[in-house]
Amino acid sequence: MDKKANIKNKAISGFFWSLAENGGSYLLHFLIGLVLVRLIPPYDYGIIGMMTIFFVLGNVLSDSGLTAAIVQKQEPEDRDFSTVLIINVMISFVYYIVLFIVSPFIAEFYREPILTDTLRLFGLNSFIAGFGIVQQAIISRNLDYRRWAKINLTSLFIAGTISIIIAAMGMGLLALVMIQLIQNTANTIQLWIFGGWNHGFRFSMSSFKSLYKFSNPLLVINAVNAIFLEIYYLLIGRIFKAEKLAYYMRARQTAEVFPQQLTYTLNKVMLPVFSNFQDDIESLRSSLRKVYLMVAYLNFNILAFLSINGKAIFILLFTDKWLESVPLFAVLCIEGMFMPAFTSVGNILIARGKSKFYMKIELSKKIVQAISIYLTISSLELLVIGQLIISILFMVIGMIIAKREINFRIHEQITLVLPYVLTAVSIFMINYISNIFLMHSHPAVNLFANLILSFTVFIAISHLFKLEAYIVIRSIIMDKFNLRKR
Question: pLDDT digits over 25-35, tens only?
Fold first, then answer.
């Protein structure tokens, strides 16, 4: 089997295992969340939202972009792995000490005294996760997502069970902290037990300098991304207080479930694939084309369905105390349609060693984001509309970059995704009309009827017009499960 065929098979297997892990992880999160949301008031979720930026930033700093450098490097040595591990642990430790010291000032900023001790406990997440980042990079590099699926799902089950018990005892905020802390701890322990670490513990300055040259722009990108991703939480929590922040969090987290899982899966699988093809323009273009097909076919249509059915979804899942989230959710679903494709274009740049150019693109995006936040911060509704406009703008920029880097012409990109945009619009309109007729029905009846109707229309359009993505997915599934006629 040649290199391309081997990588293709690994990528397909890795994609499905990663998707299974993400899907299983989401299903467990979903079931655990259904229990917790009925035991814990919105205020406690708002407090968690105020702290999330510090957890995310801690993970970014401890990683420092070095693990991506390991994945991108053609033939990393043992000293590369051990050097990155030592750096990760050191940075994680220093970050936690700083966070421990400044937590009273953060609590004063939000005018929430409870944040001091809660943040000190919550901040341990980044320190613990720092011990397992390199092992995760090795799994990613080897496309060994079957192993990661077992590790992550086991950890989540343990964490969820314990957190539900804590919440049932009336300690809702502690339950929300512990579910992440226990999961990270269990993940790290299992990564060390089953990860087969055999790279030693030797620090190499030459290795660090070599990797850091590539990773430095990624550190800037990831840090800025983390700050701007969570700055909405920070500003909403400061201006609108914990309960309003909880509504925004619930809307964003629910809207991002599918696009975020798809993006996460594509990132894990496609960066190693792109890195193997970094000098093969034709293979890169072919790989990105397949990504576009999957994103447009799945992401567009699923999010169109979710966007128009937000009210029924929120009543069924979270009860009507969360209905203020529904209008925000509808807009954020549409915004999420563009997330995975733009990220994949960024992975093309990283794989080709153009991390500095990617950094400039991301920094320009943050400048636009900052302007948008300044202009729209007076209203939560305006804020999410600003997010939508930015996503569309940078999707267009991503298309221009794809044209420049791998000669993927813009009209080809538009022609490729246009049928799936029209399918998504059809799904949205059919559900809109259906909701008018079913407005007095029980939310479960409404949602189930729309789901059956949408799925039928979706498959009928795919089969009737022989949509390329439908044919590709059906072929992969038939090959995977040996369903072809012999």
Answer: 767 877 888 88
